[in-house]
Protein 1
Amino acid sequence: MPLALDVESLEPWLDPDMTDRETIRSVVHHLDADLITHWPVSQRVNRPVKDEPELVDPITSSSE
């Protein structure tokens, strides 16, 4: 499952010395769903040889 962190949580989350469960729980919290946007992208994004910025452009269902 992906983990979405807010900006303030990035540094503590990446701290290799942070091992205490309570500290970890204080960093990981529910992110407001309104802050997340998503859209369908081309299935070409799954091909390792592809490295094009257009791969994350929105597509319509008839595009693929």
Protein 2
Amino acid sequence: MRTRFALVFAGTLLAAWSFVVSCGGGAPTESPQASRPSPSVELVVSAASDLSPVLAELGPLLKESAGITFAANLGSTGQLMEQIVAGARVDVFLAASSTAVEQLDDKGLLVPGSARLYARGRLVMWTREDAGLKVDTIADLAGPDVKRISIANPDHAPYGEAAREALESAGLWDRLQDKIVPAENVRQAFQFAESGNVDVGLVALSLVATGGGTYTLVSEELYGPIHQTLAIIATSTHQEQAAQFVAFLTGSRGREILLKHGFVLPEED
């Protein structure tokens, strides 16, 4: 996958599925003595749903160290991009795709120079521990014991696009059409599998890296890199605080959390 952004660290179901949770925000340094913005400032962070465990962990740390809070609007990257184009109030966009950020940049909707790659995501096949399934390779998805497979909608979700590409590369996409259950975003695809409504979920490693169940990494030779890219939105009225959020996420504490949840940092590629 091509991207015009440098690999550096500078930094709902539509209405029914996109949801808002209150979290903490970020700082230009990680020192508790850093100057704090007004406590009345709450950033709006539109984030790909694979980041839900990262933001949940990051929030309290950001609030404690910098006094910035944020509300996280989680959903598929494509749907979140459409909301931004439509004029939704957003300060920071954490996408699971470089393409979506490039499109917003082309429309003049980003703070110039704020787009950065912050991580690379990975795709896994996940099953419940009590499912009794052996899914060691992607070819096992065609087996008779696997009857339903959840993936994020590939039309607007980067992990769904990666899942489709992997299945196509393995020669399985057409064969598995009767088994595939699409979800609005990758987090919902995981919930379908977690609830037992499907046998296997093709989901983000970040959603399962620290939880239960069993997973197998999908070979990255089967799909293009999932370049997770962020940017500050030009209409943000809190650009200073947004920049502090970005600095914290891409600083040492944020990087530790990203690694913990299975993301690959750019310098590891």
